[in-house]
Write a structure and sequence with these properties.
This protein is about 35% helix and about 15% strand. With about 260 residues, the protein is an alpha+beta fold. The model is unreliable at about 1-15, about 120-135, about 145-155 and about 165-170 (pLDDT under 50).
Length: about 260
């Protein structure tokens, strides 16, 4: 299957060579558990949108220790479903058999779409900020200078994140466009490929025809602080106890889709 070409991590300096070597080592070591997941359909979806594809691995819970060992870090400790490791440009999506049983394999495909959207940019640029202080930063098992007078171009950014605060040690700030875009792409994918049983269940709950689920918005109440917001129905899935649920980034998608609709 033909794919859009993707810029590789730059190797014109001694810094990028070990990063690329570590990236290849991780990709070669982690088995891609794609059985039952229509990855070809996901990739066609991205190709049709003119977006580049990032290397990804679908993993199961028993592979998490291997990922953490290779990355020398802790991932999937809580309820996380996927990561785009920006420094290495690798995506990990953790498969959950229970959630797939309830929502169909399309649920995991949607998570993959979300994470792939984070990596989908042909306009990634290297940071040109220069600080006097040498701050070490870890890329998996590799520790390198962060910013120095002698070496710039150490971080990869795209225009959707701008000056977002990603490494503050607290909550992420300034990721409205990035998270909104990723979740909006998931909404578009799920509107086309939602599991038929989930679509039927949502139609019953919303009391609308099944064909209307793809374009419907659902009003929900935000627990913290109150207020109402409309969420695209394709972003709703069902928890293990059968209740409808959304992800936090769905709120950003709702806002971005509203802005796009108005403009």
């Amino acid at each position: 299957m033909e794919k859009f070409s993707r810029p590789t991590i730059e190797t014109r300096s001694d810094f990028y060579k070990p990063v690329e070597e570590l990236r290849r080592k991780i990709l070669d070591a982690i088995e891609n558990k794609t059985e039952g997941i229509n990855t070809e359909r996901v990739e066609r979806f991205f190709n049709s949108a003119g977006l580049s594809l990032t290397d990804y691995r679908l993993i199961t819970r028993d592979q998490v220790p291997q990922v953490n060992d290779l990355m020398k870090d802790i991932y999937f400790e809580g309820e996380e479903k996927g990561y785009h490791i920006t420094t290495l440009d690798i995506i990990f999506v953790l498969r959950n058999p229970t959630e797939e049983e309830i929502n169909g394999p399309e649920y995991t495909e949607g998570i993959l779409v979300h994470e792939l959207a984070h990596g989908a940019t042909e306009y990634a640029v290297r940071s040109d900020v220069m600080l006097e202080e040498r701050i070490p930063i870890r890329f998996g098992s590799l520790t390198v200078p962060y910013f120095t007078k002698k070496h710039k171009e150490l971080l990869r950014h795209n225009f959707r994140t701008g000056f977002a605060h990603q490494w503050t040690g607290s909550t992420y700030k300034g990721f409205f466009l990035e998270e909104g875009f990723a979740e909006m792409m998931r909404a578009q994918y799920m509107s086309q490929h939602m599991n038929s049983e989930v679509r039927e269940k949502l139609a019953r709950i919303l009391e609308i025809p099944e064909e209307g689920v793809s374009t419907a918005f659902v009003g929900i109440t935000i627990d913290e602080g109150g207020g109402n917001i409309s969420i695209p129905a394709p972003l709703i899935s069902f928890s293990t106890d059968g209740h409808p649920m959304i992800m936090e980034s769905s709120l950003a998608a709702s806002g971005l889709m509203t802005l796009c609709k108005k403009n």
